[in-house]
Write a structure and sequence with these properties.
Blueprint: E1 10-14, E2 17-21, H1 44-60, E3 67-70, H2 77-85, E4 90-94, H3 98-111, E5 116-118, H4 122-128, E6 131-136, H5 143-152, E7 153-163, H6 166-169, H7 174-181, H8 191-208, E8 212-222, E9 225-234, H9 236-243, E10 246-251, E11 258-261, E12 276-282, H10 289-298, H11 307-320, E13 328-329, H12 330-337, H13 344-353, E14 358-360, E15 367-370, H14 374-389
Parallel strand pairs: 3-4, 3-6, 4-5, 6-7
Antiparallel strand pairs: 1-2, 7-9, 8-9, 10-11, 10-12, 13-15, 14-15
């Protein structure tokens, strides 16, 4: 603002990339919109993962150059990390704010990398040009850009979406979710998973308008945001198949039942009591196990800002890649079973001993994904309670 001193910039290193940025007063949580070019250090793991995914995709393509777009680049942190840490691609950094463009150019010179910097509306750029990788990381919802991005993505390209409007997607602000994503959110113990599936369904529906399909490769809920990596494939038939994978999630607070159904029910399918529902949402896998193996391999020998967080996250992603949908919070099911909460390893062991699939999830500290129904899960907990009381 006029009369105020300029914001002091700090020279930092994130990963292997040097950046001049205006650091926010706090290092965690969602950023606050200010007059300064936006930079959020809390998104460092987000950017670390994007480096690993881009490196894995580069290896899949035999090192062939890709056209990579950081569509809302701000300080250029992500796009410049792409250019510095996964070199060999044609990286475009775009922002409509002239101050951001100046900051990107300054940071590019700081790293001595050659990148293309554009000052355009993202929708206009996507209407004029195609890319192999499009990264959309807005302040809030990616919804206004998803359709144009799917129309601009080359066959087999990757769309990376970040949503920081978590309260809309997880059901705190219902009307905002309805407006932005044309979907009904679901406030429930597995709300983060529903949010990711709502975001994926939104992308799939937008892609289908262009007769292309999207399939999730990696999806995660971290801190205050949701993040998806999706691979695009041309073809109306593939788009139809993707649309056929959309369902509605139901949740009954009385009995704990949850499931994916073609249409919203009027009552709980398990106990016929009142039921809540959300959707449409993506009902298939949110992780691709084979691709995650490639991502893990791509981390070897690289410098990351949050290496311990990354080392912890990837094995958990891989564990839940083949797991059934709609997690259980054991603190939610234990009261229904009338028992104290057993230790998580004991629960996993007991579920598997009865023939159920069971896995941990990054979405909840005490969350378990299993194909056991809520009643079956409760019976497993009761059996564990009886054993502990013997």
């Amino acid at each position: 603002m006029e009369g105020e001193p300029p914001t002091e910039l700090t020279l930092i290193t994130e990963g292997a990339t040097r950046l001049r940025v205006a650091l926010p007063p706090k290092e965690r949580g969602p950023g606050t919109r200010t007059d300064e070019v936006f930079f959020n250090p809390a998104m460092a793991l987000n950017r670390d993962l994007s480096i690993a995914v881009l490196a894995a995709e580069t290896a899949r393509r035999g090192g062939a150059p890709m056209k990579v777009l950081d569509g809302l680049a701000a300080t250029g942190a992500r796009g410049l990390r792409f250019a510095v840490e996964v070199p060999g691609h044609q990286v475009t950094l775009n922002d409509h704010d002239p101050r951001a463009v100046a900051r990107i150019e300054d940071n590019a010179r700081l790293n001595n990398v050659l990148v293309r910097v554009t000052r355009r509306s993202l929708g206009g750029l996507l209407g004029d040009e195609g890319f192999d990788w499009i990264d959309v990381d807005p302040f809030g919802s990616p919804a206004p850009f998803t359709g144009p991005a799917t129309g601009a993505l080359h066959n087999h390209g990757i769309l990376a979406l970040t949503a920081t409007d978590a309260p809309a997607l997880n059901g705190v602000y219902v009307n905002a979710c309805r407006r932005r994503y044309l979907a009904e959110p679901l406030r429930c113990p597995f709300g983060h998973e529903v949010a990711l599936r709502l975001l994926a369904a939104h992308a799939v529906r937008e892609a289908a308008k262009h007769e292309v399909a999207l399939r999730p490769l990696l999806s995660h809920a971290t801190d205050h945001y949701y993040r998806l990596y999706l691979r695009l494939e041309y073809g109306a038939g593939r788009a139809d198949k993707a649309l056929a994978s959309l369902r509605y999630a139901t949740f009954c607070k009385a009995c704990g039942d949850r499931r994916l159904v073609p249409e919203p029910p009027k009552a709980c399918p398990a106990c016929e009591g009142p039921v809540k529902w959300g959707g449409p949402l993506w009902a298939e896998g949110l992780m691709d196990a084979a691709f995650l193996q490639e991502v893990k391999a791509a981390t070897v020998g690289r410098t990351f800002q949050k290496p311990r967080d990354l080392e912890k996250a990837l094995p958990r992603f891989m564990e839940e890649a083949e797991a059934p949908p709609l997690l259980y919070d054991v603190h939610e099911i234990a009261p229904l079973a009338g028992v104290d909460v057993p230790k998580t390893p004991l629960i996993l062991e007991a579920l598997r001993a009865r023939g159920y699939r069971a896995a941990l999830t990054h979405l909840h500290d005490r969350g378990i994904k299993t194909d056991a129904t809520a009643r079956e899960f409760a019976e497993v907990l009761r059996a564990l309670g009886r054993q502990s009381g013997e």
